[in-house]
Amino acid sequence: MLSVFSLNSIFLLLIALLGAGVALWVYFSNPKARTNQLFLLFTIFNIFWIVFTYFSDITDVYSMASLAILYRNLAYGSVFLFLICTYFFVKFFTKKTETNVFLDTAVVFSGTTLLFISLFTNLIVKGVEPRNWGNYPIFGIGVYVAYPAIILLTILTLYLLIKNYFSLSGKNRIKTQYFILGICIFALGNFICNIILVPWWKNFPYYYLGNYSTFFLIGFTSYAIVKRKLFGIKIVLAILMVIFIAVLLLLDILILTQNATFQFFKLLLLVAFLNFGRILINNVLKEIEERKKLERLTKKMKNANLKLENANRKLKKIDQAKSEFLSIASHQLRTPLTVIKGYISMIREGFYGQMPEKTKIPLENVYISTEKLVNLINDFLNFSKLEAGKIELKIEESSIEEIITSLIGELKIEAERKNLKLSWEKPKNPLPKLLIDKDKIRQVFINLIDNAIKYTKEGSITIYAKHIILNSHKRDKVIIGVKDTGEGITKEDHSKIFESFSRGRAGTKLYTSGSGLGLYICKQFINMHHGRIWVESSGKYKGSTFYVELSV
Ligand code: ADP
Fold first, then answer.
1. Other C-beta atoms within 10 Å of 145: how many?
2. Cα separations (Å) of 523 from 235, 434, 438, 443, 546?
3. What confidence category does residue 229 fall into, taking pLDDT thresholds of 50, 70 and 90?
4. Residue with the nearest Cα to atom 16 of ligand 1?
5. pLDDT of the residue at 205
6. Residue 220's CB: how many other CB atoms inside 10 A?
7. Cβ-proximal residues to 204 (8 Å cutoff; 6+ apart), any chain
8. What is the pLDDT of residue 138?
9. Contact yes or no for 45/3 (Cβ under 8 A)
10. pLDDT score recorded for residue 99
11. With 90 as the cut, is the pLDDT of residue 257 above it?
12. From 429's CA, which of 235, 324, 505, 529 has a CA 20 to 30 Å away?
């Protein structure tokens, strides 16, 4: 069977080899980083410390006492170098590299002085005494300086670490938490075993347990340096706790319990505990994952919102620029067009003498095109005014019949040109007069009849009106329908054709140069009159009827 002594040797050697491997791995993951360089150094000195202690333990005191003393002193020398490196490591690891000349010098000076004392004198360890577990050091007078110095350097490093820790945030903070955890376990292990137990309990057989604790320091720190994503420290503590209790239970079963039945029940308890620990840790992990997901989602949403806000702002600017451009361009175009239209009318009416027959049709075409342009520009102007909220109604008592009659006269030429029958079915009894803005309502019916002509290839366009008499509490209504036998309107188009710049199937097919503003303006104008406008159609190629309802 392995004795405690040889088991200890194997453990320490394993830790030394593992530590060296980890330190090199961390170093080569980024050899230029100061943190990685210092980590390599402090791990190496840490290993030296363990290895020299081990060598001192296995040296035969009777034949090579001075060698055993030298190893022990070398181990102390390594401790001082380790402490110097750790102090500077903390600075770089917590990214607070500013120099404090006094402290830095004090650390280097005291560390190196003690290093020389341990290397070249036997002031710290003056002898060794064989015990059944190794060689116990006999301390010299130097120990009264060495131990306080070790404690002071440790406190200083911890102070620096904790001070820097509170100014850190996010990933760096979690990384530092790992290092702090490692250093706490390490310092605690060494403090209890090497500083409290060894000097006072002369035959303390487990002093090497302090050395084992280095495993946590190297492990946690290397993990924190290399790993990009780290678990929160709470989960690590939970895992450590579970492991710690499991080890205690195991030791209890193996060492303290002699009775086989008890051992069996305690084993069951251990298994149950391990299972409980697994569930606990899994739940915590799940919760962490959920929280992270939520955080990620919130972050994404915030970003998306920000982008949307920006886009919105830009769009508003562009929109404003577009409205201004439309308004200016339309104003500039409308004046010359009105002049052109006026002259053509005068030529057609013979004001400049008899017009040759040949010229009549081309001139009619020019007139129609000009008319279309004027309508288009009016749409643009109305749109930009609507957008800017600059439209006001000039309400007066008007006859809707008169408006439509005059419009039919104007639009007849275009309908006849397309061989369409344009008829106005006046109601038998004259319609009541309405309080409306004549120009706006006129514009509405120009758009509706013009559309009916545009989107009808053959057949007819009929305009009719109805007076709907309601009871005395409600106002009467007038409904005017513009019915055509044209392209019809599909279901998808129903909802969108009244939006600005929105064109339907018929629009993109038959009249590519349209603006998609006509119906939008109609709707806005009718809304301003508190009326209603809608369309009914049985579908593609089945004609459509646009209705306008106004209160009397
Ligand atoms: P535009 O005629 O310039 O496209 P409008 O706002 O006047 O703009 O019309 C929007 C769309 O509604 C048109 O593109 C067309 O598809 C559809 N539409 C309007 N009137 C009719 C109609 N009488 N018959 C069939 N489709 C129509």
1. 15
2. 63, 18, 15, 11, 11
3. confident
4. 504
5. 61
6. 24
7. 193, 197, 198
8. 87
9. no
10. 76
11. no
12. 529
Residue 531 one-letter amino acid: G
Torsion of CA 103, 106, 110, 115, to 10 degrees: 80
As given in the structure block, the two tokens for residue 32 are 């230029």
368 C-alpha vs ligand 1 centroid, how far in Å? 19
Please give the span between the terminal C-alpha atoms of the chain, in angstroms, as a whole number: 112
Query: What DSSP character marks residue 458?
Result: S
Identify the pLDDT of residue 2.
43
Residue 236: band (very low, low, confident or very high) from pLDDT cuts 50, 70, 90 = confident
Residue 124 CA to residue 137 CA, distance in Å, equals 9
Q: Side-chain half-sphere of 94: how many Cα atoms within 13 Å?
A: 25
117 CB-side CA count, 13 A: 21
pLDDT digits (tens, 9 = 90+) for 433-443: 999 999 999 99
Q: Are 19 and 47 in contact (CB under 8 A)?
A: yes
CB 432 within 8 A of CB 478: yes
Q: Where are the alpha helices (DSSP H) in 121-169?
A: 143-166
Mutating to test ligand 1, I would choose from 451, 482, 524, 540 the residue with most ligand atoms within 8 A of its C-beta, which is: 451
Determine the Cα–Cα distance for residues 74 and 170; give it in Å rounded to an integer.
Answer: 40
Strand bridging mode 532-537 / 460-468: unpaired
547 φ/ψ angles, rounded to the nearest 5 degrees: -115, 140
Rounded to the nearest angstrom, the distance between the alpha carbon of 380 and the centre of ligand 1 is 16
Name the token pair of 484: 């055509």
Residue among 503, 533, 542, 548 whose CB has most ligand 1 atoms within 8 A, to mutate: 503
> Are residues 19 and 40 in contact, defined by beta-carbon separation less than 8 angstroms?
no
The residue ranges of DSSP E strands in 272-430, in sequence order, are 395-398, 421-425
- Which residue's C-alpha comes closest to atom 21 of ligand 1? 451
**Contact yes or no for 212/15 (Cβ under 8 A):** yes
Contacts of 532 (CB under 8 A, 6+ apart): 526, 547, 548, 549
Average pLDDT score over the chain: 87
361 three-state secondary structure: helix
Ligand 1: nearest atom to the Cα of 447: 7
Query: What whole-number distance in Å separates Cα of residue 20 and Cα of residue 116?
Result: 25
> Which residue owns the Cα nearest ligand 1 atom 13?
507
Interval between CA 278 and ligand 1 midpoint (Å): 68
Structure confidence by residue, pLDDT tens digits, 174-216: 888 888 888 888 888 878 877 777 666 666 566 667 778 888 8
- Say how many CA atoms lie within 13 Å of 249 toward its Cβ: 18
What tens digit of pLDDT does each residue of 23-59 get? 998 899 889 989 899 999 989 998 998 889 888 888 8
Ligand 1 centre from 34 Cα, in Å? 72
